[in-house]
């Protein structure tokens, strides 16, 4: 079936079977590989993208559910004020260890900061819960979100 998909500000026509996860369309059809496959059951957060500005797990978001919606991936974050601040904070604080989960972590952090510009440590932990990091950089991730909030406040 043919679906019109608006991804990172551009309209794409894609052919995909109903029930195809958005993740596979993004990675395999549109060749944007920043969004990662982690678990396939929406438990790890590696596949997080924004759907109409809200973080969602693309491994469990089906292509037929995103027609005419705006999908944003990590590849577009440097052009977003909040996304750029989060990426700057990540680099300043050397948040990343292996990096595999980080696109999902960043997408979730951006969603949080757009909703709550100055979250407490507890609010960060609550919002980021469910984004797994096998390297356990959770303290650096929390510090990165706090630093991004400071950058945005300046």
From TrEMBL:
GO molecular function list: 2 iron, 2 sulfur cluster binding; isoquinoline 1-oxidoreductase activity; metal ion binding
Enzyme kind, highest EC tier: oxidoreductase
Keyword check for Iron-sulfur: yes
Gene3D superfamilies cross-referenced by the UniProt entry: 3.10.20.30, [2Fe-2S]-binding domain
CDD domains the UniProt entry points to: fer2 (cd00207)
EC number: 1.3.99.16
UniProt keywords, alphabetically: 2Fe-2S, Iron, Iron-sulfur, Metal-binding, Oxidoreductase
The 2Fe-2S ferredoxin-type domain, residue ranges: 1-77
Protein name stated in the entry: Isoquinoline 1-oxidoreductase subunit alpha
């Amino acid at each position: 079936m043919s679906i019109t998909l608006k991804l990172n500000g551009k309209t794409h026509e894609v052919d995909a079977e109903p029930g195809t996860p958005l993740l596979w369309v993004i990675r395999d059809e549109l060749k944007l590989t920043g969004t990662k496959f982690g678990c396939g059951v929406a438990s790890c957060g590696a596949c997080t993208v924004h759907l109409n500005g809200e973080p969602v797990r693309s491994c469990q978001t089906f292509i037929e559910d995103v027609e005419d919606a705006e999908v944003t991936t990590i590849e577009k974050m440097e052009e977003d004020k909040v996304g750029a601040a989060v990426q700057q904070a990540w680099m300043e604080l050397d948040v990343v260890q292996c990096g595999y989960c980080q696109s999902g972590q960043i997408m979730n952090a951006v969603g949080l900061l757009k909703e709550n510009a100055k979250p407490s440590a507890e609010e960060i932990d609550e919002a980021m819960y469910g984004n797994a990091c096998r390297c356990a950089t959770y303290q650096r991730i929390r510090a990165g979100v706090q630093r991004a909030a400071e950058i945005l406040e300046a």
